[in-house]
Amino acid sequence: MIPNHSILKTPLRRSGLYDSFYNPHNLILKINYTSNKNNPFDGLMDFNATLIHEWIHWIQHHSTSFGMLLHALRYTQEEMTLTSLRQLPPNYSKYLIENRNKGLGSIIKINNNKFEQQNFGAYSNFINLFGQMWFDIQWIYHFLNNPNTVKTLGLPTGQIIGDSFSYIYLYNVFGNKRLSQAELFKIRQWYSFSDDELNASKDLRIFVKNKVQKKATLFSRIFNFDDPVNKLTSETLMECSATMSEIQFLCNNIDTPLNFLIKKEHFDSRIKLLMETSYGVPLKIFLNLTNQDINMFNVGSITTTLNTLIFIALNPPVPPLQYNPPKNKKTWSWFDIYPPIRFIRSVYALNNIKPLSAKAQNLETKEFINKICEISELPIINENSLKLNKKFQQIDFSDSSLNFDVNNPSFSSYDFIHWVQKEFQDMKEDSIHFLTNFSNCTVGDLSVDFLELLIPSDKISFAKVPMQWTKNDKIGFTSTKTAFYNILLRDLAFSNCLFDLVVGQKEFDLHTFTPQVNNSKPTHEWVKNSIYQSIVQTRNK
Predict the structure, then answer these.
(1) Which residues are bridge partners to 217 per DSSP?
(2) Please, what is the Cα angle at 521 between 517 and 527, to 5 degrees?
């Protein structure tokens, strides 16, 4: 069971109006919405809007370089755990696992969100070094998402960020191949942000005062841990874009006198949510810096432009899409990497360019992105390809002829994730408007162009979240390929429990997988046996 520390919690992507969420760690979507029995149409509108919100998170996590970075950090942490514990003598790794299962001590100890070194006898230095590296990745993962969740730790050093990014390179590209110290130092340099630069970034903090004053106010600190409601973070960028996409979807529906009032009610509820919570910080910044207000009649251009600016912010040059330094420099700048800062720079660039039209399509969207990046001097990704460990198999999961054997799995969850990300990368050139403003593509002529993605045939589609938490607390699948999903579900359970292995004690925690999975004794036994086999009975090659 994982201890109750904020740095160890899964950062769920939640809808603001209902307790619905997308979990990026187990690829499960939950729509927890009760329909309006008195007005089924009203309920359908809200359900679909909430579905859009969570669907956007799936797209964000797999089509943006920032979302892919988060998955790469998670994968690196998993590979680091397997590789490190396999280096220990089998009898000692067995001893660590058994102690953890009996509740006699976790492998990595964390108190008050801080890593605590332990005495492991002859192996103390080795295990504590692994623990520190594991913890640093976890710290950076949450810090990049939302610094509020790790406020007791404050700002990480530039070296810790550089180290964590270089671990991605090590475990995603070279696997277990040993690199020289010179090679590792060179790779680490590409993302070794100076501490002075990190501290200077505090001056870019933007707060927006309440709507009555109608003005933006610059404050001196970007990381004010005491005021999370007015904090601009990568997480609020994601949530704002998803909620704006809900509004976009509602306003794109056919206008009739009968549904106008319903639409206005739903529109108003979401605008209120954005204006009163942290979800709306990017919108408030955008409206104040462009001297605008938002209503049902001008929402088209505002949502299209804002969502595209957030897309720019969420696509910094980071692994696993970018593995080289910028031209004529040894390292990237923190101002080029951190999504909130990228967003602020892109909004300021709007003073010199026309906003996007309400139904902007591919060419207009591409030209807008390029112009914003040129004006704001924001770097864009140079190497648009995934360079990953050869362990990842090049499987086309959309191939309807593929057969899967639950008893003899032929792929891992990361093979599938890699395929999803590659599919999204391949569609960027011709369908950037789908990735930036998904809701526009659900209506009119655009919906015809993207029909296969929006309503996939009975095969594994990269465009949709593969699994859903159903109303009867079971796992629902996107298609009828049950064997595939059972393999995927098992491997995701293994990944989550491997995380639990190093920081938890006693029973493994699978509550994020629905009661059907968590209460399954065979599932827990399978996970325990798989972890034992993967660490104690397997050696590094």
Answers:
(1) 207
(2) 75
CA distances from 209 to 77, 82, 231, 284 (A): 40, 48, 12, 9
Q: Which residue has the tokens 């090659």?
A: 541
Contact 193, 337 (CB under 8 A): yes
pLDDT for 358-400, tens place per residue? 989 999 999 999 999 999 999 987 555 566 555 677 889 988 8
Contact between 238 and 60 under an 8 Å Cβ cutoff? The reply is yes
DSSP β-bridge partners for residue 206: 218
- Paired with 30 in beta bridges are 21, 469
Question: Does the pLDDT of residue 241 top 70, yes or no?
Answer: yes
Hunting for tokens 């639990």 — which residue is that?
Answer: 500
pLDDT in tens, 337-361: 999 989 988 998 888 899 999 989 9
Decide: 29 and 10 in contact? Cβ < 8 Å. Answer: no
- C-alpha closest to that of 56 among 32, 34, 76, 29: 29
**The dihedral formed by the CA atoms of 343, 345, 348 and 352, expressed in degrees to the nearest 10:** -110
Burial 436-459 (b: 16+ CB within 10 A, else e): bbbbbbbeeebeebbeebbebeeb
What is the C-alpha to C-alpha distance for residues 67 and 82, in angstroms, rounded to an integer?
Answer: 23
Cα(273)–Cα(15) distance, rounded to whole angstroms? Answer: 10
Strand-pair category, 109-111 with 28-30: unpaired
Give the Cα separation of 382 and 325 in Å (integer): 10
What token pair was written down for 395? 């499987």
- Alpha-carbon distance of 131 to 152, in angstroms, equals 19
3-state secondary structure of 506: coil
Among the listed residues 367, 356, 361, the one whose alpha carbon sits nearest the alpha carbon of residue 440: 361
- Determine the Cα–Cα distance for residues 538 and 541; give it in Å rounded to an integer: 9
Q: What is the DSSP letter of 173?
A: I
Helix (H) or strand (E) holding 430: helix 413-436
Question: Are 325 and 331 in contact, with CB atoms under 8 Å apart?
Answer: yes
Distance CA(432)–CA(361), nearest Å, equals: 8
